[in-house]
Amino acid sequence: NMRAKPAHQAELVNQVLMGNSVKILKRHGYWFFVQTEPPENYLGWIEEGGLKIFDLNGFEKWAKMEKIIFTDYFGFVYSHKDKKSIPVSDLVMGDILGVVKDEGRWIFVFLPDGRTGYVEKNQVESLEKWRKNVSLNVDNLINTAKKFVGFPYLWGGTSVKGFDCSGFTKVVFKMNGFELPRDADQQSYLGVEIDPGKDFENLKPGDLLFFGQKSEEGKPEKITHVATLTLITP
């Protein structure tokens, strides 16, 4: 969890999934002010327990390791090749793990913090192959978006445990191979602006719709919400 200030009660502004790196900019007690990877480059505070701090050699070793991406909604890394064994860690869609050994229907994995365990092979894909095969197209975007119907809302959330509006669009696009910025106003600067038309006839499924406040009385226009268009009805 990434927060606006170095305190647990501070606003949740973002989440960083397992296996993703951040750049540490400064420290305040047991909190670190960090910046996420490009192109997001988001700033916020993460508590020490949520990080694994590498030296250069450790980071290079992790970077070179063969990796898998968790593609199911939720799951676990288990201590043994048995779903009844003690969990080592929970997992959410998009988490990245290092591969130690392929063991049949299980993969022996390495977590960024040094822990090891087993994950079921049918819940993961080779990260390299996934990146090559994933396709950003309208059908895939819509199908991914519909998979998350009924998932909980969480302000600042960017995982299947809970999304806010821009967290939802970010995850939908991420799981189709495209990294959107974190916030709705930032996302609005990408792509091509479309005049929706009088009856919204210019819109197509897969378009991002932005909502907010018009500029008035010297106040600038402000975008506060984003949604993914999935269906057009006459």
TrEMBL record:
* Keyword annotations of the record: Hydrolase, Protease, Thiol protease
Is Thylakoid among the key words of this record? Answer: no
Q: Which residues form the NlpC/P60 domain?
A: 135-234
One GO molecular-function annotation for this sequence? cysteine-type peptidase activity
Superkingdom in the source lineage: Bacteria
InterPro entries assigned: NLP_P60_dom (IPR000064), Papain-like_cys_pep_sf (IPR038765), Peptidase_C40 (IPR051202), SH3_16 (IPR041382)
Q: Kindly state a single biological-process term from the GO annotations of this entry.
A: proteolysis
SUPFAM superfamilies per record: Cysteine proteinases
Key word Isomerase present in the record?
Answer: no
Family the entry assigns: Belongs to the peptidase C40 family.
Q: What is this protein called?
A: NlpC/P60 family protein
Q: Which organism is it from?
A: Kryptobacter tengchongensis
